[in-house]
Design goal:
With 231 residues, this protein is mostly helical. The chain folds into 2 domains: 144 residues, no CATH class; 56 residues, no CATH class. 81% of the residues lie in helices and 0% in strands. The longest helix has 47 residues.
Length: 231
Amino acid sequence: MNNNNHFEKHFTATAVVRDIIIGMSDGLTVPFALAAGLSSVVSHNSIIMAAVFAEIAAGSISMGLGGYLAAKNEYDHYFSEKQREINEVKTMPEKEKSEVIEIFETYGLTKEEAKPIVDAFEKRPEAWVDFMMRNELNLETPDKNRATISSITIGLSYIVGGLIPLGPYILFSEASQALIFSSLFTLLALIIFGYVKAKIIGINPFKGALRTAGVGGLAAAVAYFIASIVS
């Protein structure tokens, strides 16, 4: 007797992973672009370090607050829509039944085939509301701690990403020398980060690495060019 086991390999990027990607990508590119731009007009590393430190602090707070507000709005939106669905199931059951039938018709079921399911939902109003939330509104129940976790994750990821381009300015006294090593470290970090990010979301990792490195390099080049013109 042969046992055929079927395994499906899927990776679903969790909310925390998405937050790390958001924080790290901005943390790598924005402070690096700022440091590169300042290196074209400032010779003292202390000024560059102070400016980049300030940017990392402000950026991590701003990104963290943005993540918090986005998650909080998502949470409030979900329960606002859920309350609306609860009221509609109570006050407009026939309309909601027809919507359930329409949903099942999109999967190829007839009205007659969907009717027993609709009748079963009528006896289970909570399950009915959950079904409508997922299949009509495409909304999943959010984690009540999501806003706090998101803000902390994005903020810390931004700091970690920002310290990579800043490191050489701490180690070397000459801004021009620090810029060279900062560029190399940041480019390597962008390539690794882009590769890992692409693997997580399921696209070609080499294409993802080149794309991420290209965006970061372009941001730094534009900042460097603008600072040179202004000076």
